[in-house]
């Protein structure tokens, strides 16, 4: 009986470890990383329904190397912080956070999606994963159009 319980415990731990290995983590402290760019997606853009609002993009040190060289090394993390856009008095300002999108480069863990892991955290809540195991449909299918840029849409302006 002890042997069966030990086998079950090892199998459960192995499954948990495997799941963790393909999970994109919430990027604590990302706002202190390099700000790459900001943009606004307005009504009329084909991605407005999913991504309308203000985007702020941040990159860790490894991702900044990727922006400079055109090839992102493992360990690169790019964050897009999507907020509602609030327009009044001829200004556009930040509203409520819609999602915190995270792409993390690890060629081995995420080999099925060009070496990138994808996750979205609804409302910016680290516990509210909205992509989960749907990265191919939810993210990667669009990113394949950027294969020549290592699957990254954004660029860094010096």
**Category from helices, strands and their pairing:** alpha+beta
- How many helical stretches? 4
Could you spell the SSE succession in H and E letters? HEHEHEEEH
Largest sheet: 5 strands, antiparallel
State the helical fraction: 25-40%
Q: N-to-C terminal Cα separation, in Å?
A: 64 Å
Show unreliable segments: 2-21
Which topology does CATH recognise? Answer: Chalcone isomerase
What's the number of domains?
Answer: 1
Number of strands: 5
CATH superfamily: Cytochrome P460
Overall 3D form:
globular
Describe the structure.
The chain is α+β, with helices and mostly antiparallel strands and 158 residues long. The chain has one domain (26-149): Chalcone isomerase. 27% of the residues lie in helices and 31% in strands. It is built from four helices and five strands. Strands 1-2-3-4-5 form a five-stranded antiparallel sheet. The longest helix is centred in the first third of the chain and has 20 residues, at 2-21. The chain starts with a helix and ends in a 15-residue tail after the last helix. The model is unreliable at 2-21 (pLDDT under 50).
């Amino acid at each position: 009986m002890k042997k069966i319980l030990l086998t079950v415990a090892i199998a459960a731990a192995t499954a948990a470890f495997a799941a963790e290995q393909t999970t994109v983590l919430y990027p604590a402290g990302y706002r202190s990383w390099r700000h790459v760019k900001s943009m606004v997606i307005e009504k009329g853009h084909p991605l407005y329904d999913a991504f309308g609002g203000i985007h702020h993009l941040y990159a860790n040190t490894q991702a900044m190397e990727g922006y400079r060289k055109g090839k992102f090394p493992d360990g690169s993390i790019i964050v897009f912080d999507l907020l509602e856009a609030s327009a009044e008095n001829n200004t556009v300002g930040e509203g409520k956070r819609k999602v915190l999108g995270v792409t993390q480069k690890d060629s081995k863990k995420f080999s099925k999606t060009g070496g990138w892991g994808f996750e979205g955290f609804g409302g910016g809540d680290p516990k509210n994963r909205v992509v989960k195991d749907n990265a191919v449909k939810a993210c990667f299918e669009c990113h394949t159009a950027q294969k020549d840029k290592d699957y990254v849409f954004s660029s860094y302006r010096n």
